[in-house]
Write a structure and sequence with these properties.
Layout: H1 2-18, E1 23-26, H2 43-48, E2 56-60, E3 64-68, H3 73-80, E4 86-89, H4 98-105, E5 111-114, H5 121-127, H6 130-134, E6 138-141, H7 146-149, E7 162-163, H8 166-169, H9 173-186, E8 191-194, H10 197-204, E9 206-207, E10 220-223, E11 228-231, H11 239-247, E12 251-253, H12 258-261, E13 269-272, H13 279-284, E14 290-293, H14 297-303, H15 307-337, H16 342-354, E15 359-362, E16 367-370, E17 394-399, E18 401-403, E19 406-407, E20 410-415, H17 421-438, E21 441-443, H18 448-460, E22 471-473, E23 482-487, E24 501-504, E25 507-510, E26 514-517, E27 520-530, E28 533-540, H19 558-575, H20 581-590
Parallel strand pairs: 1-5, 3-4, 5-6, 8-13, 11-12, 13-14
Antiparallel strand pairs: 1-2, 2-3, 7-9, 8-10, 10-11, 15-18, 16-17, 17-20, 18-19, 21-28, 22-23, 24-27, 25-26, 27-28
């Protein structure tokens, strides 16, 4: 693979020279700013070999570098070894930005290319800085070299779209359009451009299979006070879906027609988010169009779940919990018997989830990291990296599923046998962080950043930290990572509101030794009204026992032990009626209250 990447970089350099470019920037995104793009747009992975969900690759005639965040530092080092790329660790002191690095390695008058379909106006601003220009560098929108050089490039997906039933969606398309149009009226706008695939799927009560593990479909949507127009490859629309769109008063146009149609908004006022709408669509708007740069109102509407979606989550968590109990009961005896590997247990978990009603596939590829692999935050085993499991140490399993009525995401770290004192201490610190955040009561409107320290407090007292986010929203049979709210150290202003979902997933990672993460998906609920306002709390949606064997009980206080016992009581009460006698007995033992 490394030789292939070197060949691609050499071909790219010849292409750049032929086209008068001195460097080219490959972001991770597609024209819809997707976290997980369809294979057709994975040009950063194609040129670099790095397959993480976040990163930017840059190639010059004499150098190449790849930027990614802390989730992928270890994985990127492994995948980039032997290639022309060097790793740039984002948000680590001393790491230059893309613009700073280019200013340092390129001579004056150099031309740097970027694809206008896969970058936003905000991306352009981040690169085309005063420093960049002071060094005589010019950023130019240029065709993506992958269009010419990627010989076996996957085609754009043309998979059929399906209807999300109203019993799971909770609101009709008409009701959702009315909410969106109310936002247009409030802002005195004539239209809204939606490019985010999950926002389009949510608005139209449709789902698809164009993106791996994410039930969305490639399209654009324009909403005005009187019209709703979907831009899509029409071959994807079945007769049933076409009738659904017609009933919802949604017009259908070809996917590529959007740039021409934007010309009709001359003299109008349009809402779009320059951080996520691609540059080419922004440029397609006529000069006479007034643009309000604002986050899409759909993101917040989608994030706050309606009653039907909440109930769908609860049903999906029950089925997922049953699959997890069956898996966990099977796991340790199977490892002790021998012959199990990271990949084999992934297959077993997939098999058990596949037995559950309304299962539509995984919500992301299972992360199963044993021992040192657990320290690689987003490690996914491959045939090349797969290792055997032994009846000792820690196994980190981060997994989830797409069900028609909800999406699941949970992490459990399992002691497969004896653990070291360091592993036991780290496990307990992570559990303390998880419980402290799970027990938080907070004013309505808090941002996730204001709560993030709850999950880190115990480990900070020991000089320990983790660099990834602590929590993210989860879609309703949609993206497993959903915004706009997050819980993380760097400032995220989106407020936490009742009936949002958000994960709780602190972790500790010891390079070359082990990793620990414990994650539940939670629902934000009203807690109480006081003279100081409305207070909220978290309610765990995930139903799966937390392994108690690696806990150092002396590190937990009474409130923490009580929370764990109460959580396990809920897990047992809700899952036990759905299990046979053998699995029920195992769960009874796994959720047994701790006696000090």
């Amino acid at each position: 693979m490394n030789r292939l990447i070197t060949q691609r970089v050499n071909s790219l350099r010849a292409y750049l020279q032929e086209h008068g470019l001195d460097a080219y920037i490959f972001p991770s995104t597609d024209p819809h700013y997707s976290e997980y793009p369809p294979a057709h747009w994975k040009t950063r992975e194609w040129i670099s070999g790095f397959d993480g969900s976040a990163g930017t690759a840059v190639v010059t005639q004499n150098d190449a570098a790849l930027w990614t965040d802390s989730r992928y530092f270890l994985a990127a080092e492994e995948q980039l070894a032997g290639t022309p790329f060097r790793l740039m660790k984002e948000r680590v002191e001393g790491t230059p930005t893309v613009a700073e690095w280019l200013a340092g390695v390129l001579p004056p008058d150099s031309r740097v290319g970027i694809d206008g379909w896969t970058c936003s106006m905000e991306d352009i601003r981040a690169i085309d800085t005063p420093l960049f220009r002071q060094h005589g560098l010019r950023l130019e929108v240029a065709p993506n070299p992958a269009d010419a050089l990627w010989t076996d490039r996957p085609p754009l997906p043309d998979n059929p779209v399906r209807i999300q039933p109203l019993e799971y969606a909770g609101r009709s398309v008409g009701e959702k359009l009315a909410l969106i149009r109310a936002s247009l009226t409030e802002r005195q706008a004539d239209g809204l451009i939606l490019t985010a695939l999950d926002e389009i799927a949510w608005t139209l009560n449709l789902r698809g299979t164009d993106v791996h593990c994410t039930p969305v479909f490639v399209s654009y949507l324009i909403i005005t006070p009187t019209c709703c127009t979907l831009y899509i490859n029409k071959v994807k629309l079945t007769t049933e879906v076409a009738a659904h769109l017609a009933e919802s008063t949604a017009d259908v146009r070809d996917y590529d027609d959007i740039t021409a149609d934007l010309q009709r908004f001359n003299g109008r006022r349009m809402l779009l988010d320059r951080r996520s709408v691609n540059l080419m669509l922004c440029r397609a708007l006529p000069e006479g169009c007034a643009v309000e740069d604002t986050p899409s109102p759909v993101a917040m509407l989608k994030a706050v779940k309606c009653p039907a979606e909440v109930e769908g989550f609860r049903r999906a968590m029950l089925r997922d919990g049953v699959a997890m109990v069956k898996f966990l009961r099977w796991l340790k005896p199977a490892v002790q018997a021998g012959g199990q590997t990271e990949l084999s247990i992934c297959r077993k978990l997939d098999e058990l989830r596949g037995e559950q009603a309304l299962y539509c596939g995984n919500s992301f590829d299972t992360i199963a990291g044993y021992a040192a692999h657990g320290a690689i935050v987003h490690y996914e085993p491959t045939p090349e990296s797969d290792i055997a499991l032994r009846a000792e140490g820690l196994l980190l399993i981060d997994s989830g599923a797409q069900y028609a009525d909800g999406t699941t995401d949970l992490t459990r770290t399992i002691a497969l046998g004896p653990v070291t004192e360091e592993e036991r201490r780290d496990y307990t610190l992570v559990l303390k962080g998880h419980i402290r955040l799970a027990r938080a009561k907070f004013p309505k409107g808090c941002s996730g950043t204001q709560l993030d320290a709850c999950a880190r407090y115990a480990m900070w007292q020991e000089g320990v930290n983790f660099l990834h986010g602590t929590g993210h929203g989860v879609g309703s049979c949609l993206c497993v990572h959903e915004g706009p709210h997050q819980i993380r150290m760097n400032y995220m202003p989106a407020p936490l509101l009742p009936y949002m979902t958000v994960t709780n997933e602190p972790g500790i990672y010891r390079t070359g030794r082990h990793g620990v993460r414990i994650e539940n998906t939670q629902l934000i609920l009203p807690c109480r009204e006081t003279e100081f306002g409305t207070f909220l709390q978290f309610d765990p949606l995930t139903l799966c026992p937390i392994d108690t064997t690696p806990i150092d009980w002396s590190m937990l206080d009474r409130e923490e032990t009580d929370w764990l016992d109460q959580y396990h009581q809920r897990v047992y009460e809700q899952l036990s009626p759905l299990l046979d006698d053998g699995h029920r007995a195992w769960l009874r033992e796994a959720t047994r209250p701790h006696t000090k």
